[in-house]
Each structure stands twice: as structure tokens, then as C-alpha cells.
Amino acid sequence: MRAPAVGKIEYKRGVDSGVINQGLFYLSWLMDHRAEFERLVRDRLGVTAAAQVLWSGPRLICVAGDFTRYDVHAVREHRRSIDLVRYRLFGSDLFGLETVASVSSRLPVSQCVRRQAAGPGGGGQSMALVELAQAVDESLLGLGDGVNCVQRKMYRAYQRLRNFACVCTPQRTKLLVYLKVHPKQVDLVPGFTRDVTGLGHHGTGDLEVQLRTLRDVERVRELFRMSYAAA
């Protein structure tokens, strides 16, 4: 079981600067009441889950109709992990989420999501890829201080002094990650790692890694560390 991260989601319908301040207030309250939160997790999910709660990287996700440029500037100067997410409604069954600003982002929120639950045959696979992407995100951001994440149109770039990992939009059955590791430095494994030197692809890096399960995240950790060190 993956350890749950601690966070707070604050939602407002319109443009309201109070969404950030209010969200920070409740996040601070949560961090000051760790024992109560862990007790709640223990009662709801069990002792094992409560023991695995991660307090090292709490984050705030603010969802609103829109944000001002002052809001965007404020979160970029703030020491907390904060996402500003703008929503748009499309008819009665669809809404869009767009990341306006992100500091050490952990959630791939720039996507269009159906309000209703997925039907049989498609939902399980999508949720597995979401969990896989989040595990990769946590692993890359946990490599050390100073890691920034920038959302591009087709991939997410993880940066130190420069990009060291690019995670593409999930495909049907796998997640592609491109690393700043020279392919000749590693033993390539068919179906897992590939030399893409000179081949066109989204993101930067000549080593392609294909991830399909959470177990693959454990297999790739050393490559993540090598790419981080090279940046």
C-alpha cells in the first residue's frame, strides 16, 4: 500500500482571493493537528494506513473559476506546495481543469474529466495509470531539494538546473518517461528501457523508460537518481 500524502483542497465558485488564504489556514490547522488526523485515518482505514501517512510534503490545491495575476505571483513566492486550478464547465457532464500556477506540483490536473464514474471496462485501467503517474511524481520530487515541476502541453518536466526527467501524458497501458541518462550507461531491457537517441519524441532525454505497474517504479529508481545527479 502506498503511503497517503497530506493535503487540503479549497474550492470557490468565482474569482475569490480568499480561496488561497482560507486554504492555507486550514492546511496549517491540519499540520497542527496531526494526531487527530492520524486517529481519523486509523479509524477509517486501519493501523497500517495511519502509520504510513506522509507529513513531509503537504500541499494545497485551490480550485476556483479564475485567479488574478496577483494570486499567481503570490503562490510562486510562497514556501508551501500550492496549485491554483481553474475550472470550466462544458455542458452537463464535463468539466475542464487547468493548472494556472503550480509549486512542486504533484497532481496531473490539466485534463478533462467526466463527472460520472467510469463504466465497466475502462475505469480500472485509467485509475491504475493515475496511481502510477502519482507514484512517479512522488519519486521524482523526492529525489532532493530544489526539484521543480513544470506542466507542458504533452509532458511534465522535472527540473533541477535543467530538465532531468520528462513524463508524457499516459498512454492506454503505459507511462513513458524520458531521462537524461546516456543509454550506453545502462543495460537496456526490451519493453522497459530504450535508446531513443536521434528519434523524435516529446520531452528531453535519450533514455526512454516504459512503466506499466507500480513495481516498475521501484525498478526505475536508480535511473531516476542517475538522471537527477547528471542535472
From TrEMBL:
Alphabetized InterPro entries for the sequence: DUF5655
What is an example of a Pfam family matching this protein? DUF5655
Please list the residue ranges annotated as the DUF5655 domain: 125-228
Q: What is this protein called?
A: DUF5655 domain-containing protein
